[in-house]
Amino acid sequence: MLVTVIVVTHNRLPLLKECIAALHAQTSPVQEIIVINNGSTDGTKEWLEAQPAVQTSTMPNRGGSRGFYEGMKKAYATGCDWMWIMDYDSIPAPDALQKLQDAVSITRETKDDFGFFGSKVVWTDGTPHKLNIQLPLQHFSASKDLAFYKANNIVPVAYNSFVSFFIRRDVVEKAGLPIKEFFIWNDDIEYSMRVLKNGYLGALVENSIVVHKTAHNYSSDIYSDNTSNIWKHVYGIRNEFYIRRHQKSYASFLRNVFKKFFIFPFKIMKKRKDNKFAFIKAVWKGTWQALTFNPEIEYVEKHSSVTKKTERT
């Protein structure tokens, strides 16, 4: 099984070094490591140039989503069987990849078509990371029941995080690439849901552990988040609306436009302790942008790294 790893980074050199070291220490070796350097100015570019075992692409910072998009295109061109996607602050346990590959072997035997797997994401103290908790699939139908898969540390999920996302090459051919225009937040949720919509299953592998080494164990809660993340919520809300438009229904999209404009301000006023108007403006801004935000999905050409676009209907 040929595995290419994609790591996206921006100005976090110490954590990137830790991530790369953890990848080199995997009990099941990877064939290729691709790092997308999003315009770092902290010495990342120079350090990467001195790493012969790492393929590097430095580009202007257009967000994590663009980095994953570019990285997966490059990984596809390597001819790998599987792509392992992660952030610079993803620190995989030594056997994290092996456990993902074990899950692949189990599902091959059952012949259930799992297109992606994700690791259990924890914070530095070993507790589940609040930002990366996967949602178990509510309606599951396959040759083996949930009890069988859970006994093998495999939990079917509705989506998985790009903190550790293991996806098969042919699934990328069918489902396409991440939407580069998302910039940040919800790109992994949209992509996971799109893979499932194309007829595949996805799963959390509970004994594949990756530490998401953020400064704090936090979630993207608009009612308690600090002001430094306001700009992220604008993107997150806009991208959430894209998901509603294409993965749910246009009626759901319109209902939630109404809610964000007219109901959420009252919720924020009630639940937030400070900076209430700043977050109300962020909700309105993200919702307003969502009205016209409708980027195209791009696909890789089979057996090449060329991409093509598909028109939205």
Q: What does this 3D model show about the protein?
A:
With 313 residues, this protein is an alpha/beta fold. It has 2 domains: 3-218, Alpha-Beta Complex (Spore Coat Polysaccharide Biosynthesis Protein SpsA, Chain A), CATH 3.90.550.60; 227-290. The chain contains 10 helices and 11 strands. The strands form 2 sheets. Strands 1, 2, 3, 4, 5, 6, 7, 8 and 9 form a 9-stranded mixed β-sheet that branches. It has a two-stranded antiparallel ribbon with strand order 10-11. Helix 7 runs parallel beside helix 8 (230-248).
Number of helices, counting only DSSP H or I runs of 4 residues or more: 10
Beta-strand segment tally: 11
Q: H/E element string?
A: EHEHEHEEHEHEEHHEHHHEE
| Range of helix content | 40-55%
Low-confidence stretches: 305-313
Largest sheet: 9 strands, mixed
Shape: globular
Question: Which structural class is indicated by helix and strand composition?
Answer: alpha/beta
What's the CATH class of the largest domain, please?
Answer: Alpha Beta
What's the CATH architecture of the largest domain?
Alpha-Beta Complex
Mean pLDDT: 94
Brief overview:
By secondary structure, the protein is an alpha/beta fold. It is built from ten helices and eleven strands. The radius of gyration is 19 Å and the shape is globular.
